[in-house]
Write a structure and sequence with these properties.
Blueprint lengths: L1 H23 L8 E9 L2 E4 L3 E6 L3 E8 L3 E8 L2 E2 L7 E5 L4 E9 L12 E9 L2 E4 L3 E6 L3 E8 L3 E8 L2 E2 L6 E5 L4 E9 L34 E5 L1 H6 L1 H4 L7 E5 L14 E4 L2 E4 L4 E4 L5 E8 L5 E5 L2 H14 L8 E7 L12 E6 L1
Length: 361
């Protein structure tokens, strides 16, 4: 009887051990859980609300920023990295690791929303092309130190091109801009017909040109253009006579003109010209010209200081030269630059404010 009991007892003990192993062994299909911490800076809220949450690894989470009255959403900070200002208030984030997200809100007129009235400045808003702004075009006065948000709204058939502040082009980007009222300012919203910007759609989303730097080419400030001699054919010389007066007769060379006027192996630098197109081969970028309306130029800054400006047509060549004369002190470290010109005011002439760099390598 004792022997039988011992066998039964031993069996129960083994069963208990096996059961404990089943309970405590990690399950091979168990899902990893990760934490998402949401914070807020400024006056506003989020959905989900600020706090710490757990989500399965790989799950996509949507967070919405909701500004309080008198405030606007400014940007997201994801794991310490700031997103571009005035982006979308909706963020989709994938849980690949523990994440920290902060929604940043700012007063709609900067400061604490109650800036001193002792200093007030004017903001004149203008429009070129077909479109409007919010606030509407006109002249306004704001407290010193405040920040004014202005949104560009293109008319049908037009697109927002870029902003111009006090005569200075500030590049393509968001149709929403903030102006710090530290003085009187003139802000212009530039709109162009949609068909003119069609080539840009292959360059990058929302005007993002993917700018890179890395060349050792350099034009030293204070030595350009006086120490450069211009080499060009008669057509380009006569078309740019007013601009060439800035150049001297130095020992450095600036070659002015497209490949038909001045043959050069542009292909060795990843650039080719085909009919009315300028192509950057390595990046698969193609820029198409419309004679007298839209044009492009390739500017090559070689390591020995030689400069080459080649437009698809003479308008592009002039646009490249005009842009370089205005921006030469900003060029150290650049190698290849593609300049775009669009005749925004329709007068048939190339003006600096109508030019923009669309690619830099």
């Amino acid at each position: 009887m004792t022997r039988k009991f011992s066998i039964i007892g031993l069996g129960l003990l083994v069963a208990a051990v096996l059961l404990s192993l089943v309970i405590y062994l990690p399950q091979s299909g168990a899902t990893d859980m990760l934490s998402l911490e949401i914070e807020v800076e400024g006056e506003g809220a989020t959905n989900p609300p600020p706090g710490t949450y757990s989500f399965e690894k790989g799950e996509e989470v949507t967070i919405t920023a909701e500004p309080a009255e008198g405030y606007v959403f400014y940007q997201w900070v994801v794991d310490g990295v700031e997103t571009p200002p005035h982006g979308k208030p909706v963020l989709k984030i994938r849980m690949t690791c523990n994440r920290l997200v902060k929604a940043v809100f700012i007063p709609s007129e900067g400061g604490d929303g109650h800036a001193s009235q002792s200093s007030r400045f004017s903001l004149r808003i203008q429009v070129l092309g077909e479109g409007t702004t919010d606030p509407a075009p006109g002249e306004y006065r704001f407290s010193g130190g405040s920040v004014v948000l202005v949104r560009a709204e293109p008319a049908e058939g037009y697109v927002f091109y870029q902003w111009e502040i006090d005569g200075r082009r500030v590049g393509r980007g968001s149709p929403l801009i903030e102006i710090e009222m530290n003085g009187d300012h003139v802000l212009r919203a530039l709109f162009v017909e949609e068909y003119l910007t069609a080539p840009l759609k292959s360059v990058g989303p929302e005007g993002d040109m993917g700018v890179e730097t890395g060349s050792t080419a350099e034009i030293a400030a204070g030595r350009f253009p006086e120490e450069y001699s211009v080499i060009a054919k008669e057509l380009d010389l006569s078309f740019n006579e007013d601009l060439l007066a800035h150049f001297g007769h130095g020992n450095r060379s600036l070659f002015l003109g497209g490949p038909a006027a001045i043959p050069f192996p542009w292909e060795e630098y990843g650039v080719s010209f085909s009919g009315c197109s300028l192509i950057v081969e390595d990046l698969g970028k193609r820029f198409n010209a419309t004679y007298g309306v839209r044009d492009y130029a390739a500017i090559l800054l070689e390591e020995d200081g030689t400069v080459r400006i080649a437009g698809i047509t003479r308008y592009g060549t002039r646009a490249g030269l005009l842009w370089l004369l205005q921006e030469y002190d900003l060029t150290p470290g650049r190698g290849l630059i593609v300049i775009e010109w669009i005749d925004m005011d329709g007068d048939g002439s190339v003006e600096y404010w109508e030019t923009s760099p669309v690619l830099e390598l």
